Model the fold of this input.
Amino acid sequence: MASEDFGRFVEHFLSNVTVGVELPADVQVLRPYTDPEVRRVLRLMCRKYYAGGHPRVGVWGINPGRFGAGVTGLSFTDPWAVAHDLGIPTTLEGRRELSAEFISRVIAAYGGAQKFYRDVYMSALCPLGFTRHDVNINFYDDVQLAKTIRPKIIEWMSQALDAGVRRDVTIVLGAGKLRSFMEKHIRTDVGLAEV
Done:
């Protein structure tokens, strides 16, 4: 069942997300949502593009990296895309990021940000990013991290599904390890029809 205002759910969820479990000692968490400018951009994005209660298709990636969502707090969105694709002026700085460039092209082909985000919820299986020695790591590449974070991913994804992300169709960006992780460790636990 879709929440009355999906944007409020997304803003509240991302503004308050925490790991809540003990991670391997050498793993650091990217927490973009502690930055006041990220919170402002998130609020404006959610109110402009995620307002309303209609169901959306979930498009899921890995976890934020240091140059895209790790800077902006928005999955597959670098600072350039915030200003140019979303039309939200920002003081966030950073370079273009490959996945953000790809998603910018997808959004343009779909008919623009307003149409795209009305139908799609862009997120990451893990909304917090991870680094080791200042290098991005994907949670599934570290067996202990994947095992530790899996229950949280199930919790986070269940909340999004309950708020209005569709269960009958889901898109995973990537055909390799992420899709395999989703199929083996997440899909049935959250009640997705197929990936």
